[in-house]
Amino acid sequence: MRVVALLVLLVLELAVFASVSGADVSTPSGVLDYLELKFLDLIPGLAPVLVLSVGMTLVLVTAGIDLSVGSMLALVAAVMSLFDGGTSFWFTAVPLGLVVGVGLGLFNGALVARLDVPPIVATLGTMIFFRGLCQLVMRDAERAPFFDVPGYEWLGGFSGAMVTVGLVAGAGGWFWSRSRWRRELLLVGGNRVAARYAGVPVDRRLMETYAVMGVLAWVAATCFTARNGAVNASTATGLELKVIVAVVLGGTRVEGGRGSLIGSVLGALLVAVLDDGLREAKGWSDEHLPFEISHFRYLLLGLLLVVGVWLNTRIGRRDDG
Amino acid sequence: MQPTTLAVVPGEILGLVGENGAGKSTLIRLISGVLSPDDGEILWQGRRVAFDSPRPAIDLGIATIHQELEYCGHLTVAENMLLGERWPRCWGGRIDWAAMRSEAGRRLQRAGCEVAADAQFSRLTAVEKQLVAIATALARDARLLILDEPTASLAAPDARRLIDHLKTIRDSGVAIIYVSHRLDEVLELSDRIAVLRDGELVHLAGADALDGPDLVREMVGRPLQQVFPRTRDDFPAGDDLSSTPDNVLLRVENLSRQGMFEGVSLEVRAGEVVGLAGLIGAGRSELARAIYGLYSPEAGTMELLGRPWQPKSPWDALEAGLVYLPEERKRHGLVADHDVSSTLAIGIRDRLTRWGLILVGEQRRRVAEMISAYDIRCSGPGQLVGTLSGGNQQKTLLARWLERDPRVLMLDEPTRGIDVGAKAEIHSVVDRLAAAGHGVLLISSDLHEVVGMSDRVLVMSRGRLVAECRGATQTERDVLQAAAGLATATPEADGC
Amino acid sequence: MLSRMTAPVRRRIVWLLAGNVGLLLVIFACLVPGDTVPGAVSRLGTVLVDTPRNIAPEMLAAIGLTAIIWTGAIDLSIGSVMAVGGAVFAMGYSHGAPPVVCFGGCLLAAGGLVAGNGLLARWLEIPALIVTLAGLAAYRGLALVLVNVGVPGFDGNLTVPEEIFRVPGRDWAGWFLLVAVGGALWCESFGRLPRLWLAHGSSPAACRLQGLDLPRLAISAFLFGGFYLGLGGVLYVSNQQTIDPARMALGFELSVIAAVVLGGTNIFGGEGSFLGTLLGVLFLYLARQTLIYAFDDPHARQAVEGALILGVIGFDCVLHRTEHRMEELK
After folding, report:
1. pLDDT along chain B (496 residues), means of 10
2. Which of the four CATH numbers 2.60.40, 1.10.287, 1.10.3470, 3.40.50 does domain C54-329 have?
3. What domains are there in chain B, each with its CATH number?
4. How many Å lie between the alpha carbon of B136 and the closest alpha carbon of chain C?
5. Contacts of A124 in chain C (CB under 8 A)
6. Chain A residue closest in CA terms to B401
7. Cα(B87)–Cα(B97) distance, rounded to whole angstroms?
C-alpha cells in the first residue's frame, strides 16, 4: 500500500519536473528517453543518500536516530583525502576510511548504548564534533586526490553506483529481511525492556547498528568522492536531513519497532528526484522567483519531514484501530 | 459493550466482577468520563448527565482510582493531591505553599493516612500511594468512589487495611463500586454484586445470595473444574526431604545483593513446584532476576543442573534451560504492535536460525503448532498482541518459553489481572510441567494460588528467606504470618 | 523553591556552584602568567564585565528551552529561529524602520515560530522532536528566502553600523538579564505554572485524569519559551555588527540543550530548575572562555567545543545510568 503510494508520487514528481525543465515527453519514445536520461543521471548522485538511508532505517527501527551521518561522511572523506592518488590509495586510504567509519559509528554507539545518552542528543553532539574534527583535518583547504586513483572514478559512474546500490540495498536488504538480527532489533526498538527479558543483548545490538551506520558512511563517502572528486570542510552538510526524510517518507516510524527498506529506497528516490528537479528548475526559478531555489530546498525538506511523519502516524493509527 | 442498566445507591458497595474483556473497564471509563457512550444515558441523582472528559465527572463527585495509578512522581504529595484545583495564593499572586501543605495534611488526616504532605511522591511505598489516591478522591467530596483492582499490587496486610478503610467510607454514606478479580474480597466487601459477561450484565444480586463457585459460574457461563488442578502425585513431603544431586535442578546458596536480598538459599527439584511468597518489596522478583542473569549477585553461589551457574546475561539462562516469565507482561514482555507470530518466534529464534537467517517456513509451522497447542485464542498469527486479552497475552508469553522445553521455569505473578478461565488454564499447564519432571519456581502474591499450587512454600520478607511452609503448615494463614514477620506459637527452625 | 526540587537537582546546583567558582579560578590562573596579580585581576574583571552581553542570548534561550523540556517536549530549531529573527530584523533595517520596529519584528518572529512549533506538534499530533527537527532545516531556509526577498541588494550579509542598534545587546544586556532571569526565578518559586509544566512532563496521564487541560499547558510552555527566545534573539542580533542568516546561531541549539541538561533538568521532562539552568549556562560559558585562553587554534575550536558538550552530556547521563537501568527493569 505504502509502496504503491510512493510509486505514484514518484511518477507525479517526474511529470512535474519534466514539464518544468522543458523536456519533450509528448511521445512514448520521448518519455523513455527522458526516463533513461534521468536514471543514468540520478543513480550516481543518489548512491550516497540511498546507502545512508539503508543504515538510517536500521537506526530508526531501534527507536534511535543518527543526525551525524553527514559529518561522518565528510570526516571519512577528509581522512581519505590526506593520501596521494595512485594505486597505493586502494591499500592505504580506503581501508583506513573503513576503520575511521567504523570507529565513528562505534563512538555514536557507545554514547547511546553504554552511556545511555538519548540518540537525538548524542548524534546532535557528534554531528558538531565530527564536523569540528573535519575542520581540523581539512583546515581551509580543499583536497582532490580521488580522480588520480586508478579505477576509483568508476565507482562514481553509473555502473559503479548500480553495483554499490545493488550490493547494499539489494543483497544487504535481502539478508536483512530474513535475518535473526532484524528480529532482535525490532524488539529492541519496540520495547527495550522486553528485549532484555527475552535475552537480547541490547547494548551490543545498538553498538552494532551504529557501527553498521559507520560502515555505510564509508561506503557513501567512497561513492560521493568518486563522483565529486573533491572534499572540503563543509562537504555533505545537511545530508542527514535528506536521509531522514527519505526514510520517514518510506514508512519507517520514528518511535521504532517497525521499518521498511523498500520504503526507504523509494523514499530516497523521491528525495533525489526532488533535489535534481529543483536544481534543473534553477533556470526557470532565476527568471520567475526572487530567491535561490536552493534555499527553498531546506524549507521543502522540513515540510516533507513533517508531512511524512504525520502520514505515518495517521496510517499507523488506522492499522492499530 | 451491550446496553447495560445498573444503579448504585449511597452507602453501599457494589462489587463488579467479570472475565477480562467482559466490559468492566469500559463501564468504568464511561462512568468516569474517559469515554463517551454511543447510546443510553447516565443519570446522576435522577438528573441526566453527559461527560466529554474526566473533569465534569470529577466535579459531580465521581472519583475513580484506576488500576494503574497515575501520578506525578517528581512533585510533592500536596501538589499531586491538589493538582486539578485552585491553589491557595497570598498577596501579589504568589502561591501560599504553607497553606497548600496544611490543606493537604488536613485531607490526608481525614482519610487516616499518615504521609507527609511535602514528601516527594515517587518516594512513597505502593500502599501509601494508594491511600493518598483515596484521600484525594474523598477530599473532593466524592459521592461515588470507583476502585479498579485496588489490591492488585498490594499484599495481604495492606489489602486488609484498605478493605477495612473502605467499609468505614461506605458507612459514612459514600457509594462505592469495587472492581476486582479477587472474588473473596468482593464477596466480603460488597452489599450487592454485578457480574458482567461478554459486555452484558448477566447477574445482579445481594452478596449474601452468592458464593465463590456461583460467581465463577456466572462469570464464565459454565461450571469450571477447580481452579487449582492437580494431576500429579504429591511430592514427597514430610521431614524426609531427600535431595539427591540428580534431582536438584536449581540451587542457590547464600545469595546476596545489597538493597535487594540477603543470604537466600533455596532449591528447586525436578517435578517440584516451589512457591515463593512474600509482601511487596520482599525481594522475590529481584532474586529471580539475579538468577536469570539480569544482574549479578554480590555474594553467594548458584548451581543449575548440577553445574556452577554464573550467568552473564539472560541469554545464558535461556540456552541453559532456565526461563523467566516477568511480572508485568505489558511493560516487560510484549510489544503491543508486533504480531503473535513475531512474539512467539522470538522465544525460539535460535532454533529457527541457520547462518544468521530465519527459516521462514519453519517459523510459520512452529507458530501454528504453538497457537493450537497452547490454545492461544487469536484471529491468526498476524493479529497484534496488543489486541489480545490479558489471558491470551500471558499464554503467548508462556508458550514461547515452554517451546524451548526448559528444565526450570521461574514464573512471576503468572495470573495477575487474568480472568478465572485463563487462570485455571495456566495452573493446569504448571501442573503438567511438574508432572513431566520440570522444576517450577512460582512467585505469587495471591495466597490461594501460592498455597494451592505449590508443593512447598518459601516465604521471603525484607530480602531474607524467613520460613518454609509445607504439609500441615502450608496454609494461607501460616504463610501470611511468616510474610508479615509474625512469630507463631511454636517456632521451629525452618518451619512456620 | 529548593524544597520542591528533587534531590538530584539540588545536588547538581551545588556542584555547579562549585564548578563555576573553580572555572573562575582557572581563568585567573591562566591570566596570571605574563602579568602582575593586580593586572590579572583587572583582566578577569573585564572578562566578567563582558559576560552579560555575551551570555544573555544563550541564557534567555536556555530558560525558555528549560520550560519546554520540562513538559516533556523539546525544540531543536532554536538556532534557525534566531536566524529568522535576524532576517526579519534585516528586512526592517534595510527599509529604514526605527529600532523598535526592527527589534519588535525580530522578537515577534522568533517567539511566533517557537509558539508555532508547539501548536503544530499539538495539532498534527506528532512529537515536538520531529516538528522542530524539520524546523531546524526549514527555518534556516525560510531565513535565507526572507532575506533574499526582503532585503534589496542582499549579498550574503548585512552590516549594521549605527550605534543605536547596539544599545540593547551591548549596554542593556545586564538589565535585561536581571529582569528576565529574575522574573523566571520568581515564577519558579511562587508560581503554579512551572509546577504544572513539571507535572505534564512527569505524567501527562495523571494531569489529564485530574482534569488539567493538557494542550493548553503544553502550548503555554512553548509561548513562554518563545518569548524568552525572542528576547534572546533581540539581544543576539543587537550584539552583532553583521547579520549573516546562513551562518548565525549555527549549532546554537546544541549548546543550549547542553546547558539545560547540565543544569540538572531531565531531558525527558518532569524535573529541573531555572536556577540550575542559569548556573549551567554560566558554566559552559566559563568553560569556553577557559578553552580560548588555553587553546589558540581557531580550527580546533569547534571540535573542542563539541567534545566538551559531549563530555558534559555524557557525564550527566552516566550519573543517571545505573538508576535508570534498575528502574527500567522494574
Report:
1. 78 82 77 81 83 81 81 92 88 87 89 84 83 82 85 73 85 88 83 83 83 73 59 54 71 90 92 86 88 92 92 93 91 90 92 88 93 90 88 92 94 85 88 92 85 89 86 76 55 38
2. 1.10.3470
3. 13-220 (3.40.50.300), 225-321+406-496 (3.40.50.300), 328-405 (no CATH)
4. 10
5. 76, 253-254, 257
6. A198
7. 9
